[in-house]
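Handout, section 4.2: multi-component inputs.
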Amino acid sequence: MELVDTGSAMQASDETFADAYEARQAIRAGRWRRHTSGLTPAYVQGNLAILPLALASDFMRFCQSNPKPCPLLAVGQPGNPQLPTLGREIDIRTDVPAYRVYREGVLEDEMPDLKLLWQGNLVTFVLGCSFSFEHGLIDAGIPLRHVAEGKNVAMYQTNIQTVPAGPFHGPMVVSMRPMKAADAIRAVQITARVPKVHGAPVHIGDPSLIGIADITRPDFGDAVRIAPDELPVFWACGVTPQAVVMAAKPALCITHSPGCMLITDMLNRDLPFA
Amino acid sequence: MELVDTGSAMQASDETFADAYEARQAIRAGRWRRHTSGLTPAYVQGNLAILPLALASDFMRFCQSNPKPCPLLAVGQPGNPQLPTLGREIDIRTDVPAYRVYREGVLEDEMPDLKLLWQGNLVTFVLGCSFSFEHGLIDAGIPLRHVAEGKNVAMYQTNIQTVPAGPFHGPMVVSMRPMKAADAIRAVQITARVPKVHGAPVHIGDPSLIGIADITRPDFGDAVRIAPDELPVFWACGVTPQAVVMAAKPALCITHSPGCMLITDMLNRDLPFA
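Output:
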């Protein structure tokens, strides 16, 4: 099983686009094949999971039951590659820079589009990602250690169980950001307003209380320094549904490649009201 | 200097009233001379401070600059004992069960009303108190240790400095409630919605970071147990303005007696929208 890594926001890009639509056109035309973090930063980006119809109902129920790790932004109609609620003319077969194809939970291929792979029984799921709330935290003047250190955010398996649905079950994966207490309090308030991108933290403080034995050794991403006057603050992470889906070994699952997200027409600033 | 203790909500009373107005009439008539915690629990109760006009402007500015410890619910017109924005026919000279009179910062007297003491140069300040947000926490199913243990909440001097205004300056006093992390996260969200009653916490975790040397020895109130899986959560406390006012040694200052609050016509449930 290989985990898709949601990456972390705020990396600079050397190209800019006027809006999400224009960025998607560049991606569709093959002019942008890299990660999307920092690209059109005003817009909400989403994690992608595409599953066969036979599993779609259970996965939708799994997301509905576990909204913090699996905040659903949109679900496509079976076989329909459009996502009109997320953006103008989105075609999920072409509008993500790179895709990964898993069969029975094993990574089989990486490809620039799904034109040949698309079938009438595929259902698209787009889930909120932490790029959006990291923008909110940075806008509020809360420093993010992994951004300052140029690293990927630290992620951990926990002993927090998700609510199972059909073949989908497993522990929650969390991301951790060390903060001073005053910033942690503000971060709770800021992220609580955006449940579509993981919402409020799931834990603050002692990592062992959620089954993390060694905070210096994340399961995914990079370790970051925690200062003596800081608390580790843990958010539900979009790696959770990816791990859960892979563990269920679906006949076919297609995701975005790490960091290569779907850029939607939703504005981050509108998320508190979404 | 003697500190008025704001006490803690949720104590049972053996008498009930239909609403705040009726409770105030009983208090005014001398039929209720005790603390008001648990009395007409749907209604917001307020801390009282009455100061001479010469100090009123500085104190109002102090409250405005320090809204977390000093959330102003209302300021009376000089010499006017009514507070029409807080409740029908309130007369601050008679509608609090017991008053304390301080001169030059020293407790001089305790009295059942201010009929003889009232002067044309007195200005009334009513400040929000933690009774209201404790109701909100309990309504949300968050257990409060001091309530369970039948104690007063634990309060501590800190090294957090208030913003000074005229003669008013000094460190913030905080109240502490131990909570599991998940409850602490929810408590931040719940109390952030009610800035008129202290709002979100000012600190979570390591007490030494805000100058508290020994968490087992509160400066006011009672020590409570902190379980190994709990975080201490600290809120700005209404004892702060009381300590600051007493330290300024005003010629005259009148407060409510500990726990004997002004019951307003405001509903706790309306506080998030106030």
